[in-house]
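Input.
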Amino acid sequence: MATVIGKKKKDNLLNRIIAWIHLWPSIVSGLILVFVCLTGTVIVYGDEIMDFTAGDAKYVKPQTTEKITVQQITKNLKKSYPGYTVSEYVFFKDPARSIRLRAFSAKPLMLSMIYMDPYTGKILKKDNSIYFFFTTAHLHAELLAGPIGHWIVAISTIIFVISCITGLVLWWPKKWNKATRQASFTIKWKARFKRFNYDLHNVYGFYSLIICLVLGLTGLMIAFPGFMDFTIKTSGAQIAEMKEALPVIDTTKESKDAVAFAYKVLSNEPQKESVSIWNFDQQKLGAFIFTSGNVGLKSIEKADITIYDRYTGEKLNIDPKYIKHEKTENIIWQLHMGQWWGWIGKTSTFLAGVVATSLPITGFLIWWGRRNKKEKSSLTSNNSFYLIFFRWLCAYCVSGDPASSPGILKIVASGDTIYINHFAGKKRLGTILLIIVFELISLKVIPPAVTNSSLKVVFPFTEN
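Output.
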């Protein structure tokens, strides 16, 4: 029997510790977590929104002429937008699709998607909607507050991951039966607000748990390079980046054009709809690095990497561990951005983001409701002595024979009036006693026979 009681005490202590870890760090970081989850949720459908805002600029009339070169793209861009520099080129397999350029301007600071006809080089549209997602992404990652914001978000994300784990422990029923299954997996839509709010936190929190954990952990990998390197190394990839294994640029040699190789990659890979190449890599390396697949803002679904020597045009084969490094890092970004398994991955990530945004709010409301309940319970408990004492005293005063000895508290009830005599010469104490009686009257402690609607409490402020 003693062993069972000891085990229960240990279980209760462990549950209290887990509940404390789940509650208080989340309360402290709640506002930050709501903001980070909300901004992350907004970014999920960034690709689809930008495709929508691009409108007809995504399409051109197919022609049989040669595609324009990188030099022509750069020339046309500088002519129309002198302050802009291309950071990424995206080419599409569909001959009716335009070239998409990710371009930025340092002064004024702006990031834009520029759509260009691949046959004529005509600029079809400059779309600035990407700048909204660029700003939102930096708010999401560092609150636009530099290193300090980075650490605030990172610590809040750690708390979020811990809260997901402790939340699962607290959610787990002690006994599995029909009632606990129903309470754990279903929401009572017609219940009162407190129960409804609890179900939103408890049930939806469970359903979104796996994706929330994935989002939190991948966010930490992105935030901490050491964690990212550890993950990459664990996957069996090379920690060093692929660029380190490639030849550097040689300005004494004439480079071939990257556009022709981009469309060559697409023709060799019929399952890929687009291919990306970063301009910064072209400026430093003696090779073209193409990543084909479904190119998104920060990741590429179904990604494959193809490398060509920019001077000879030969396909380069490097250590597969370098390729695995790039693919592992891309997968981490895919999981974090929801770019996996098509629309199912996007929708699941978006809904999990909505739930994650709501969890600190619903959790706070649960805590606040219980806090008020505990305060009321504490008030009743703390005043229990006074309640019993004054119930007895008032009942005695109504029926008893009050004495008039100096220095003794006297309460006399006569009709609709309560007379209170204080300790002789103690005005301050008497005032306190009067306040206590008023409090007890408001709590309906004094019997109904005494506390009618015309009740008067008279306290003589005289010194003996």
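Residues 60 and 96 are 5 Å apart (CA to CA).
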